[in-house]
Design goal:
Chain A: One of its GO terms (cellular component) is plasma membrane. The complex is a heterodimer. Chain A is an all-alpha fold. Chain A has one domain. In chain A, 65% of the residues lie in helices and 3% in strands. Chain A is built from 17 helices and four strands. In chain A, a hairpin with a 2-residue loop joins strand 3 and strand 4. In chain A, helix 1 runs antiparallel to helix 2, helix 3 packs antiparallel against helix 14 and helix 6 runs antiparallel to helix 7. Chain B is an alpha+beta fold. Chain B folds into two domains: 42 residues; 89 residues, Tumour Suppressor Smad4. Helix content of chain B is 28%, strand content 35%. Chain B has one helix and eleven strands; from the N terminus they run αβββββββββββ. In chain B, the strands form two sheets. In chain B, strands 2-1-11-10-7-8 form a six-stranded antiparallel β-sheet, with no helix packed on it. A five-stranded mixed β-sheet of chain B has the order 4-3-5-6-9, with no helix packed on it. In chain B, strand 5 and strand 6 form a beta hairpin. Chain B starts with a helix and ends in a 7-residue tail after the last strand. The chains are: A mainly alpha, B alpha+beta. Chains A and B meet through helix 1, helix 3 and helix 14 of A and helix 1 and strand 5 of B.
Chain lengths: 437, 139
């Protein structure tokens, strides 16, 4: 099953080693009131590591490195989140286990595009249903979340993997051009553009502006790959045209943005430290307070500020663990997205899927980190895997599963009993130039 | 911050660094095994045209005259987007994607057909042989 057993054994050991080093740091340097809490946290993290390494043995994959990276970052997240509240964060731990399960679901669902290509209508239907749900939830409760007990779900988050799938499944139909008036168009591209417009409208209507850049990045990457299909050179003219269109849309968007968004764009956080600039100014103070090596796990003051565990989580980690460790955390996520560069995918479908997911992760991370550092307006977008939040973690896990599918693809046609009973009519092979009587 | 805390922080960072480094090496090892795996999946086939060998590196290979084609045949008798090679269940299939001069396999004009070893594919004036990948000769 394992192609590189020695490398995998070393990977397992070093993942546990990295977590153990963090736990030792908490033991000597942390702010936990009772040693028992550290013991529970340590046991939970190491058990999850080992259990997941055993669990992935049941999956026959060509590549396992993404599994190792996923469990590494998720258990780092459990340790961070537990340190913020100075006790074992059981809720986040359960969410991380669900995230790992979601990654395997994503892998199983997306590894064979030849099956998924036939289910395209369900993907579009799923997006439509979720958009409707977002609108219903917003108009019924003026909220973006569905609350089930102590867990909250954000329906708009679940649109992301479906939209990536819609972009990826459309790539194979780029050769099917149809003539409308004097233009040759691909119906899939029009459908995707319509879908993107509908998503943007619903997001604006439900006042979820933070997720818009993520959707736009997915669409842009999917669009660029579609017009470059299969591997055309991206001409300078096309590049300039695409950039110009994006800039025009950006200017229009900013001009007609609601008042509170415009205010957030121009706010001076240092002169409005108790108002709109409160979180960002506190986040910057915390990063400076933490320095390179941090004040110690659980010893930061930022964990008293609202949204310390999701919107400004980078600053909270920087304060408690140091800027170096926070940057290493970012590097780990970047490496997760860079794995398709190490091991290129073997189909355009998987390549499109991987690129769209990488774009979504990078944009989300950039929005959160640069927002915390006051380089861009504060958006309230989560860092994948690190921030708390059920929907965000679930979707990030599912999307990592889609990346895994690109690393261990299957190219088998489904055995459809209907297709056996009714064989497809063979088209007559006639060259277009041949003169017919 | 005392020196013990500093050392522990630095040790945690170093452990994470080493772990990431090991995982990158694992990814590199997987790249090689994945390449081997692909050759098994694709039955180690390639397209050859006299001295030129075209590697079939992904599950959809576009053949045509256009610069964006995976296998580019710069010949006016070949259409810009001429034929598509696809693999599924380890079987390679060739499909005509609206070419002007048609696709001939072993002399027969086809729209879509399964390819077998040593089949001769004629696209316009170009002849390609679908054959097993040959190991480079060691001198």
């Amino acid at each position: 099953m394992y192609a590189n057993p020695v490398a995998y054994v070393f990977s397992c050991i070093f993942v546990i080693f990295a977590h153990s080093a963090m736990l030792v740091n908490i033991w000597f340097n942390g702010n936990f009131s009772e040693p028992r809490d550290i013991a529970i946290l340590g046991a939970a993290v190491i058990i999850l590591d080992i259990a997941y390494f055993v669990f992935i043995l049941f999956f026959k994959q060509m590549s396992y490195v993404l599994d190792f990276l996923l469990v590494l970052i998720l258990n780092m997240s459990v340790i961070f989140q537990s340190c913020f509240i100075c006790k074992f964060n059981f809720k986040h731990y359960i969410t991380c286990i669900v995230c790992l399960a979601a990654s395997k679901c994503g892998y199983i669902l997306c590894k064979n595009h030849k099956i998924l290509q036939d289910k395209k209508k369900y993907i579009y239907g799923g997006i439509g249903f979720l958009l409707l749900l977002v609108l219903v939830v917003y108009f019924a409760k003026h909220d973006m979340w569905i609350r089930i007990g102590s867990f909250t779900l954000q329906p708009s988050e679940f649109i992301k993997p479906l939209f990536v799938l819609a972009c990826a499944t459309s790539i194979a139909d780029q050769q099917k051009k149809h003539k409308i008036l004097c233009f040759s168009v691909v119906y899939e591209n029009i459908a995707l553009f319509g879908l993107m417009a509908a998503i943007c409208l619903v997001q604006v209507k439900s006042h979820d502006y933070g997720s818009l850049p993520t959707f736009i990045s997915i669409y842009c990457v999917g669009f660029i790959l579609r017009i470059c299909y299969p591997k055309a050179k991206f001409s300078k003219k096309k590049l300039i045209a695409v950039i110009a269109v994006i800039v025009v849309f950006l200017i229009i968007g900013l001009k007609y943005a609601p008042e509170y968004v415009q205010h957030r764009l121009h706010v001076d956080i240092w002169s409005d430290k108790t108002g709109d600039g409160y979180q960002q100014s506190q986040a910057l103070i915390a990063i400076a307070n933490g320095g390179w090596f941090g004040v110690g796990p659980g010893k930061g003051f930022l964990s008293n500020i609202f949204a310390y565990d999701n919107d400004i989580v980078f600053a909270t980690v920087s304060e408690e663990w140091g800027l170096l460790y926070a940057l290493m955390m970012v590097l780990t996520i970047i490496i997760i997205t860079a794995i398709p560069l190490f091991n290129p995918t073997r189909s355009y479908y998987h390549a499109t899927m991987s690129s769209c997911i990488c774009a979504a992760f990078i944009v989300q991370m950039a929005l959160n980190i640069f927002g915390s550092c006051n380089l861009i307006p504060f958006t309230g977008v989560t860092i994948p895997f690190i921030s708390s939040g059920g929907s965000s973690l679930l979707v990030s896990g599912f999307m990592t599963g889609m990346l895994m599918a690109g690393q261990s693809p299957v190219f088998n046609v489904a055995n459809n009993p209907k297709s056996k009973s009714k064989p497809k009519k063979q088209e007559q092979a006639v060259p277009a130039w041949r003169w017919k009587e | 911050m005392n020196s013990l805390n500093l050392i522990l922080c630095a040790a945690a960072i170093a452990a994470l660094d080493i772990c990431i480094f090991v995982l990158i090496i694992t990814a590199y090892c997987e790249k090689r095994s994945s390449k081997r795996n692909w050759h098994e999946l694709a039955h180690d086939m390639e397209l050859a045209e006299q001295d030129i060998i075209y590697d079939l590196g992904c599950d959809e290979v576009l053949i045509g005259r256009h610069a964006s084609a995976d296998i580019r045949l710069p010949d006016l008798s070949v259409s810009r987007y001429h034929a598509m090679l696809t693999v599924s269940n380890g079987i390679w299939t060739i499909k005509d994607i609206g070419s002007k001069s048609g696709v001939f396999v072993n002399g027969n004009l086809i729209h879509e057909t399964i390819l077998h070893e040593n089949d001769v594919i004629k696209l316009g004036n170009r002849r390609l042989i679908f054959r097993k990948r040959r190991q480079e000769r060691v001198r």
